[in-house]
UniProtKB/TrEMBL annotation:
Gene3D superfamilies linked to this entry: 6.10.280.50
Name the UniProt record assigns to this protein: DUF465 domain-containing protein
InterPro entries in the record: DUF465 (IPR007420), DUF465_sf (IPR038444)
Classification via Pfam families: DUF465
């Protein structure tokens, strides 16, 4: 995620439970999505799963972004 500085990510992974959980969720969805995208064709169930995984990744990324923004604001104060 281009908005996430490595040192901030490391700190949040240690100190922020929700952030850590969201990062794990995003990574798991990304891994499964990669598995599906390597298949030559998808069943209807897999196509639905692909859409849901993309939504999961987006929701996680949006929440991660808000946590990072909040942490950055607190660091500046």
């Amino acid at each position: 995620m281009d908005f996430l500085r490595p040192e901030l990510q490391e700190r949040l992974m240690k100190e922020h439970f929700e952030f850590r959980k969201l990062m794990e969720e995003h990574k798991a969805a990304d891994t499964r999505l990669g598995d599906l995208q390597r298949k030559p064709s998808l069943s209807a169930k897999e196509s639905l799963e692909e859409v849901e995984l993309k939504k999961t990744k987006l929701r996680a990324k949006e929440r991660i972004y808000h946590i990072v923004q909040e942490a950055s604001r607190h660091a500046e104060q």
